[in-house]
Design goal:
208 residues, alpha+beta, Outer Surface Protein A, domain 3, 15-stranded antiparallel beta sheet, 2 helices, 15 strands, Toxin-antitoxin system YwqK family antitoxin
Amino acid sequence: MQRYLLLLLFLGLGTQLKAQRYKDLYDPSAYRHTINYDDHKVVFQAQPDNKELSFTETDKKYYWFSHNQIKATQGGFSGKLLHGLYSDFYLNSNLKEQGYFRLGLKIGEWKSWTEEGVLVERTNYSNGELNGRFYKYDKQGRLSEEGTYKRGKINGRFRRYVSADSVNIAHYKNGVLQPTTPKSGWFSRLFKKKENTQKKAVAPVMKK
């Protein structure tokens, strides 16, 4: 019982911390916009008047809104920056993509779904860059890929699930695939030592 209560407390604190993290992104409904396309609908929040960006970073992609269009440009913008919750819906009202912007840059966890509502991707952003764990799923919702981004590049162990009992593992460093080197375990070292001993035993004896 005590363990159950501790678990509930932990989950509650996690939800509260996440809400506090995005508290400044919830703006009045006056900043809420909707754009209807032929095959989907986007509902989002734009930069409020009391939120200004003093400078931009040349290597970042900024998302902004102007004349009923959302645009993305490298290193700058020319309209209202997206700021807050962003939701893209299919025509059947199912979510297509959802995540948060902070002054034009993607932050936190972003998710994507199929038209039938199956989750196909989870990624994490930090200040407009892919950063943190990512997961990809097939159309049946089964995990197909997972790994970690660091400042926009795959870093560390990357797994690709070929089947239920088969997985390919690769290692990346700053986006570059690293060569695989077989590790020598205790069994192989023991076998090698035994082989060397046998070679010494059968070595010819030199006579004077």
